[in-house]
């Protein structure tokens, strides 16, 4: 079994609760954001930026119930105009971390009520390791669920010009004059300057050559 690193700021100690149901303590902690806290290449909490946590740890029969909030700064890119985004996020979460022996009893009851315990239920179960729990997976899920899948700099962002890439919100009247495609075929028929003169000269030259041959 993997052992938790007690020096990790997202690992918390519940020893003071003493496994006494009803006991509670509050924890406030400001720490650096871990890597990948968000939606990759879209939006998320910058690595090593500050996250402010406010937690309430409550001892219950099965384990420790963790309720909390997290405040952090998020960065991303507008999906319409590609302008950088910088905003604040405030998320709430709650998770029960089972005592190892309590978790075994819960599994036994679940097995008795249903024939099979699916893999998703296994993955959603969090357990204490001794008196410690790791908040990172819970925090990551809460942040990702709170982030917009398609972030925009403003709700009415007009995006970019498809021809030159200009940001349309900066100049709503921006446009390009386009030639009517119905006239495009006629453009090749217009004579270039000097074409008529060349035609007359060539015609005269041919007539002169014919007269010389007759002589």
Quick overview of this protein structure:
25% of the residues lie in helices and 28% in strands.
Overview of the structural elements:
The protein has five helices and nine strands. Mean pLDDT is 80; it is low at 108-122 and 197-201. The longest helix is centred in the C-terminal third of the chain and has 20 residues, at 195-214. It is α+β, with helices and mostly antiparallel strands and 215 residues long.
Write the layout of secondary structure elements.
Layout: E1 11-13, E2 24-32, E3 38-39, E4 43-44, E5 50-59, E6 63-77, E7 84-98, H1 100-113, H2 119-123, E8 126-127, E9 132-134, H3 136-146, H4 184-187, H5 195-214
Parallel strand pairs: 7-8
Antiparallel strand pairs: 1-9, 2-5, 3-4, 4-6, 5-6, 6-7
Q: How many beta-strand elements?
A: 9
The biggest beta sheet reads: 7 strands, mixed
Shape: rod-shaped
Provide the low-confidence segments as ranges.
Answer: 108-122, 197-201
Tell me the fraction of residues in β-strands, as a range.
25-35%
Report the average pLDDT across residues.
80
CA radius of gyration is 36 Å
SS-based class: alpha+beta
Could you tell me how far the N terminus lies from the C terminus, measured between alpha carbons in angstroms?
Answer: 113 Å
Helix fraction bin: 25-40%
Order of helices and strands: EEEEEEEHHEEHHH
The number of distinct helices, counting runs of at least 4 residues, comes to: 5
């Amino acid at each position: 079994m993997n052992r938790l690193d007690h020096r990790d700021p997202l690992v918390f100690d519940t020893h003071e609760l003493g496994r006494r149901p009803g006991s509670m303590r509050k924890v406030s902690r400001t720490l650096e954001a871990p890597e990948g806290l968000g939606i990759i290449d879209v939006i998320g909490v910058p690595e090593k930026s500050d996250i402010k946590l406010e937690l309430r740890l409550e001892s219950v029969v099965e384990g420790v119930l963790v309720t909390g909030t997290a405040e952090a700064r998020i960065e991303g890119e507008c999906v319409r105009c590609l302008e950088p985004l910088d905003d604040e996020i405030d998320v709430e979460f709650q998770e029960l971390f089972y005592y190892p022996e309590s978790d075994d009893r819960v599994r036994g009851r679940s097995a008795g009520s249903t024939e099979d315990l699916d893999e998703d239920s296994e993955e959603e179960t969090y357990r204490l390791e001794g008196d410690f729990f790791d908040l990172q997976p819970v925090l990551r899920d809460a942040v990702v669920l709170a982030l917009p899948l398609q972030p925009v700099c403003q709700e009415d962002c007009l995006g970019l010009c498809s021809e030159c890439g200009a940001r349309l919100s900066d100049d709503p009247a921006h446009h390009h004059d386009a030639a009517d495609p119905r006239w495009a075929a006629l453009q090749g028929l217009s004579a270039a300057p000097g074409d008529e003169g060349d035609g007359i000269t060539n015609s005269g030259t041919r007539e002169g050559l014919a007269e010389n041959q007759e002589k």
